[in-house]
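We emphasize that the prediction below concerns an isolated chain of 166 residues; any contacts that depend on oligomerization or on bound cofactors are therefore not represented. The input was used exactly as deposited, without trimming of termini.
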Amino acid sequence: LLENGLTPDAVAKNTFAAQEVFWDVIHRAEAEAGFSIGSGQLMIEAMSGSDGELILYITRLDREKPGAAERPGKRAKVKAKRPREIRALCFASFEDVISLAKSFPDLSGGELYFYNDKYYLTLPQNRNMNLAEFAAPVFSAYIVPLLEEHGKHICSDALDKIRESF
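Result of the prediction step, given as a token string:
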């Protein structure tokens, strides 16, 4: 969830970003497994798989009669695949942002945000570099709009300004 820009709190609060991610997964289930939403309620169960995969079981609950107990209908299993493009980097502390800026002098620009007790750096271009020592990559296409709407914008040209200041 974090790689898609979602926190457990965002899912619990049923935010727009959480809904968008789950609808994307449901549409993948329709395309890949022939799963049809149809009419009825959906139940989504999440399980962690090997190698940090997130496996979602999506079950459509059918009703035999109005007011009757629900019985399981068709079920689809969808493994979340990581998108290829890194949209942002998530840092546990500001010191980690400083370390990244100093360790990679060729990286420049970026917007720095503070959201849910973490720092996020959006990069001006796709940089699929191994930066796991400093930050967790965020692949979600929804992270930038989420940060713009709910995060606190700290600065533009963040990496350059951090190198100048620290």
